[in-house]
């Protein structure tokens, strides 16, 4: 083992010590800014090495038999059980510890015991509870959500009417996993007043214990049941535990189920009876084979944690200081017009710095300089590009989040039915955020992490200009006829795969659902039936579809392999091959479609090995007539409001896919100038995955281009008087997918970073415009590159 130096006591020295130590011990944190310790915390190199050595040196058998390997396991498990009780200063005379797979399983164990009580049980839970604690209510006879600490106090103080008969369980978190608030621990003692011995307390310490010692040394003041996540303390192994007061053992006697390990004798033949284990409580509750190796790993975890971080109250002081630094930093961020950037969700006045009432978590949302909410999805996209790991949304704390964001039940229902598709883009509904941004710190966090995060928020979300940096209205409102032409046309025959450039000058059919042959196929995960997307599988950018009209096939190849596959272009090859397809339900962006999957094994094998997941090719069901295709682009779209006076059902998607996507070369040039001025690499047009690229005349003198003119356009006609008319449906909202190099499949930071700084409108980062054919206008339905483009500017108001 590496030389062990004691973690110093002084706060500043402790921080530098952690900064230094984690270079060796947490190599996975080298480039990442990890701020999701309330989700889980990383494990150290020393822990993994020690565990490995232990596994290689010893033979561990299934416990409870006579072999030496079995005895070793039994001994080891019982030792670890004692060490853990010791960590929480829980006297084995009063407490037992049951191993579970996670904290949720520990909570369920308590629920299962109460469910079997005579007449069921009454359940009360605090509004700040984790989802796993809230769920217990579904098994209770009656339940109540305490919406404030005061309500709990009143309940504890009064002989509650509800307490007339039956058994009572009160559950609350020692620390909210949403904003880190710590709730009073003395409630545990108060429930045990003489009147109320039929009332018990379940303390959810899963969030609390990860950075703070929990002291059960005063058994009379401790909760009856304490649920823990060992994963959140040590990072590894993946285990939970329930610490139980032994005087509650009778509650578990009514448990009906038994499993291997929890009975002494079972009779099945002719008679049916069994004898439950009567030994220690954990023997009655640990069904089946224990996770032996995980429990053994705890020994290494306990030792390593102590060596690396010292006592738990050192960790507590360190993380409390960091949380205060984070809170103070976020509060002080202001836009140039002096408005606050962060709305921070604390209960009452700030408690940061006082670790008895506040843990190292900050929950907040951001506002722009006009006071509008910034979409959390936008924050997540930038964080993901910058390798910042945080959590957004409801963070498994339904009551706390609804209370902090002031969401009424009807609003939550409405948000639910409004649907969160393609990664929940619509996270601001009715002018309110529907989730929070949660930053949580852990033992190996440092001051530099906090500073780094504050700099991230400052760089992207603090508006430093006093005036509107760029207005959507800059071009004169008149027809900009004929300055633009179609530079190129592109289709994506297989959704999310490489583009196929339509040869220059070749006339191409345009339809209501897009350019002919665009997104005619998709690749579907064979297990889940979900259409795969490049966002999760950047390698899809390398899959090259090729439309071969001479041979009548779509060929699919992949650079670096000589293999390729081909399928007929004909939409219905069944007359030729009965078994080409199997029908199955699939989803695209969360919406059900009935896709036709190719049954060929060769196709599935080729795509599965290209992408690295089990998948195959599917064809969208055929179009029956020009405007009633059930293809993806029409399958799940709300109707767009038409401003051109038409009321046709317009196929526009929720996500960044619409019938047709148009971008302007002039805008791209401007964007690239900005990227290059910051030392970044210019973006290739292909990353925007546009169907139509518009360009201005190359004869224009420099500086006369009209970048962002498309923001002001209502529509365009392509190819002169008789040409098709297209309508602009709004800007295309961008995500980090524009950072995937479409040739190499590699991820970059640009152009999203610069887009996020220069093209953010109302919390959306826009580039390119969603476009659709106006059915009634224009006779021809063909366009080609080189065609002139006449644009119609939006009429004023
Ligand atoms: C994480 C957490 C849980 C759930 O823990 P699992 O181990 O994921 O089951 C429950 N309560 C709180 C407060 C938590 O932070």
From TrEMBL:
Sulfurates the molybdenum cofactor. Sulfation of molybdenum is essential for xanthine dehydrogenase (XDH) and aldehyde oxidase (ADO) enzymes in which molybdenum cofactor is liganded by 1 oxygen and 1 sulfur atom in active form. GO terms for biological process: Mo-molybdopterin cofactor biosynthetic process. Pfam families: Aminotran_5, MOSC, MOSC_N. The active site is at 396. It catalyses: Mo-molybdopterin + L-cysteine + AH2 = thio-Mo-molybdopterin + L-alanine + A + H2O. Gene3D superfamilies: Type I PLP-dependent aspartate aminotransferase-like (Major domain) (3.40.640.10). The keyword Transferase applies. Belongs to the class-V pyridoxal-phosphate-dependent aminotransferase family. MOCOS subfamily. It comes from Friedmanniomyces endolithicus. One of its GO terms (molecular function) is molybdenum ion binding. This is Molybdenum cofactor sulfurase. SUPFAM superfamilies: MOSC N-terminal domain-like, PLP-dependent transferases. Keywords: Molybdenum cofactor biosynthesis, Pyridoxal phosphate, Transferase. InterPro entries: Aminotrans_V_dom, MoCF_Sase_C, MoCo_sulfurase, MOCOS_middle, PyrdxlP-dep_Trfase, PyrdxlP-dep_Trfase_major. Residues 637-792 form the MOSC domain. Its cofactor is pyridoxal 5'-phosphate.
């Amino acid at each position: 083992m590496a030389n062990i130096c004691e973690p110093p006591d002084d706060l500043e020295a402790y921080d530098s010590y952690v900064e230094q130590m984690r270079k060796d011990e947490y190599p996975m944190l080298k480039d990442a800014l990890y701020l999701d310790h309330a989700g889980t915390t990383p494990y150290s190199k020393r822990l993994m090495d020690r565990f490995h050595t232990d596994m290689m040196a010893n033979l561990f058998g299934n416990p409870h038999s006579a072999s030496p390997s079995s005895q070793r396991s039994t001994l080891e498990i019982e030792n670890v059980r004692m060490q853990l009780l010791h960590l929480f200063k829980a006297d084995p005379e009063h407490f037992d510890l049951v191993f579970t797979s996670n904290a949720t399983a520990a909570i369920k164990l308590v629920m299962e015991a109460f469910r079997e009580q005579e007449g069921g049980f009454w359940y009360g839970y605090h509004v700040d509870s984790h989802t796993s604690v809230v769920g217990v209510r579904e098994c209770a006879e009656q339940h109540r959500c305490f919406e404030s600490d005061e309500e709990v106090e009143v309940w504890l103080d009064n002989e509650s009417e509800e307490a007339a008969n039956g058994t009572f369980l009160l559950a609350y978190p020692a620390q909210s996993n949403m904003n880190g608030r710590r709730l009073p621990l003395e409630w545990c003692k108060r429930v045990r007043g003489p009147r109320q011995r039929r009332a018990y307390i379940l303390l959810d310490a899963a969030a609390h214990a990860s950075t703070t010692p929990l002291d059960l040394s005063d058994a009379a003041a401790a909760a009856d049941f304490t649920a823990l996540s060992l994963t959140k303390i040590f990072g590894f192994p993946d285990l939970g535990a329930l610490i139980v007061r032994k005087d509650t053992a009778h509650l578990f006697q009514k448990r009906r189920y038994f499993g291997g390990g929890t009975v002494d004798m079972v009779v099945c033949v002719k008679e049916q009876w069994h004898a439950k284990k009567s030994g220690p409580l954990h023997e009655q509750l640990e069904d089946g084979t224990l996770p032996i190796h995980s429990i053994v790993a705890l020994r290494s975890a306990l030792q390593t944690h102590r060596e690396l971080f010292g006592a738990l109250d050192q960790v507590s002081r360190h993380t409390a200081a960091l949380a205060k630094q984070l809170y103070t930093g976020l509060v002080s961020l202001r836009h140039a017009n002096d408005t606050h950037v962060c709305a921070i969700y604390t209960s009452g006045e700030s408690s940061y710095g006082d670790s008895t009432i506040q843990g190292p978590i900050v929950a907040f949302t951001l506002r722009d300089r006009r006071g509008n909410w910034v979409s959390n999805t936008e924050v997540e996209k930038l964080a993901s590009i910058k390798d910042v790991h945080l959590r957004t949304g409801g963070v498994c704390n339904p009551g706390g989040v609804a209370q902090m964001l002031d969401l009424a039940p009807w609003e939550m229902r409405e948000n639910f039915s409004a649907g969160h598709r393609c990664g929940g883009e619509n996270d601001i509904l009715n002018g309110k955020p529907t989730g929070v941004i949660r930053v949580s710190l852990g033992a190996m966090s440092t001051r530099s992490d906090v500073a780094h995060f504050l700099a991230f928020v400052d760089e992207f979300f603090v508006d430093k200009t006093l005036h509107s940096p760029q207005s959507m209205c800059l071009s004169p409102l008149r027809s900009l006829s004929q300055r633009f032409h179609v530079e190129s046309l592109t289709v994506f025959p297989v959704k999310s795969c490489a583009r196929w450039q339509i040869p220059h000058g070749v006339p191409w059919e345009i339809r209501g659902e897009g350019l002919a042959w665009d997104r005619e196929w998709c690749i579907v995960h064979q297990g889940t039936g979900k259409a795969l997307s490049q966002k999760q599988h950047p390698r899809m950018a390398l899959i090259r579809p090729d439309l071969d009209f001479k041979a009548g096939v779509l060929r699919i190849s992949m650079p670096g392999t000589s293999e390729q596959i081909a399928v007929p272009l004909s939409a219905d090859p069944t007359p030729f091959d009965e078994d080409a397809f199997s029908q199955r339900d699939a989803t695209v962006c969360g919406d059900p479609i009935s896709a036709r999957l190719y049954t060929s094994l060769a196709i599935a094998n080729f795509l599965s090995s290209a992408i690295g997941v089990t998948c195959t090719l599917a064809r969208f069901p055929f179009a029956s007539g020009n405007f009633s295709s059930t293809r993806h682009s029409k399958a799940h779209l709300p109707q767009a409001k038409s401003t051109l006076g038409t009321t046709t059902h317009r196929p526009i998607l929720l996500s960044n896919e619409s019938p047709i996507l148009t971008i302007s070369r002039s805008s791209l040039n401007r964007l690239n100038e900005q990227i290059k001025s910051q030392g970044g690499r210019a973006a290739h047009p292909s990353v925007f995955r546009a169907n139509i690229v518009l360009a201005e005349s190359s004869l224009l003198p420099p500086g006369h281009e009209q970048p962002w003119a498309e923001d002001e356009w209502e529509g365009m006609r392509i190819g002169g008087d008789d040409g098709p008319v297209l309508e602009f449906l709004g800007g295309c909202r961008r995500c980090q997918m524009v950072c995937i190099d479409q040739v190499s499949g590699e991820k970059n930071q640009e152009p999203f970073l610069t887009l996020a700084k220069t093209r953010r409108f109302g919390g959306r980062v826009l580039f390119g415009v969603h476009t659709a054919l106006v059915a009634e206008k224009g006779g021809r339905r063909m366009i080609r590159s080189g065609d002139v483009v006449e644009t119609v500017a939006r009429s004023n108001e």
